[in-house]
Amino acid sequence: MDLRQLHYFVTIVDEGNISKAAKQLNISQPPLSHAIKMLEEELETTLFFRGQRKITLTESGKILYSKAQHLLELQKQTTKEIQDLKKSGKGTIAFGCVSSAHMVLLEKGILPFYQKNPKITYELYEKNTYELIELLNANIIEFALIRTPFSEANFQIHYLNEDAMVAIYQKEKFSFKGKNGTLAELKDQPLILYRRFYSIIASVFDQNMIQPNIYCQCDDARTAVLWASQGLGIAIVPFSATSYIQGNENVAFSYLKESFFVSKMAIIHKKNQYLSLNAQALIATIKSHF
To answer: Which of 48, 51, 109, 231 sits at 20 to 30 Å (Cα–Cα) from 204?
Structure first.
């Protein structure tokens, strides 16, 4: 099994059939079919069934497709890393960021870094903390800007700041009596929660013997803020997510008096793993602005 065979296989799956894949790869069908046959014989399994218009992956094929995508991406990243060694102030940085930290990344990282490195390009993966950790472990990205809590094993960690949780809401629909709000005031109000923090937030309500009215759970802090800004409910998100309501005079935010947990923002990368000079420089830039 080699990377060429894996590339052929992934292309067939992506295109849906061998005919389209052959055109995409700019080769004829017989050598493509032969390459897949040799791959199946080596693995002693059938990877897919051929239909009239589209192939259907077997369980073995599904496993290989998932692994092959990571291997091909790793090959791509490795080639770039080696090429980057020959370049000065050029190259591509592959990294990830959770949605609630994106504005922080832009203001404290990308913009100041761009001033000194205008020729560097980026591959940015915007996912939740656990998905970014998977990408790190698969060597798809070099580092990630994520939030606690997460398993710290096997990672070099650079903690940046702490974020308290805040309530974001449309002024016409809701307001708190004092400067800081209380959970009691949120009772019966439709709440929009960042799914990753649901269990922690729900436990705080439970400790205060209040049954929360969960209107929506979502996987992106921007979604929570957007829904709240449209008056659909009150979003409970990390403070840094308030950057998404800057300039919107119809939306406000308030800290909560009760002791919600504090979320730390951190840059992580794998221990004993190659980190390109460009990635090191970007990490240093982000850290210097905190």
So the answer is: 231
Q: Which helix (H) or strand (E) is 283 found in, with range?
A: helix 277-288
**What CATH architecture is 87-162+264-288?**
3-Layer(aba) Sandwich (3.40)
Same fold: 3-74 with 87-162+264-288: no
**Rounded (to 5) percent helix, strand, coil in the chain:** 45, 25, 30
- CB-based contact 146:266 (threshold 8 Å): yes
Is it true that the peptide bond before 31 is cis, omega within 30 degrees of 0? no
Report the chain's terminal Cα–Cα distance, integer Å: 47
Segment among 102-116, 253-267, 268-282 with least mean pLDDT: 253-267
Round to whole Å and give the CA distance between 174 and 246. 18
Rounded to 10 degrees, what is the CA torsion of 145, 149, 151, 156? 40
Query: Is the pLDDT reported for residue 176 higher than 80?
Result: yes
d(CA 186, CA 213): 8
pTM of the model: 0.63
- Superfamily of domain 165-261 in the CATH hierarchy: Periplasmic binding protein-like II (3.40.190.10)
Q: What does the domain layout of the chain look like in residue ranges? A: 3-74, 87-162+264-288, 165-261
Contact 141, 96 (CB under 8 A): yes
Dump pLDDT digits (tens) for 6-56. 999 999 999 998 999 999 999 999 999 999 999 999 999 999 998 888 999
Q: Which fold has domain 3-74?
A: Arc Repressor Mutant, subunit A (1.10.10)
Q: For residue 79, what is the enclosing H or E element?
A: helix 59-84
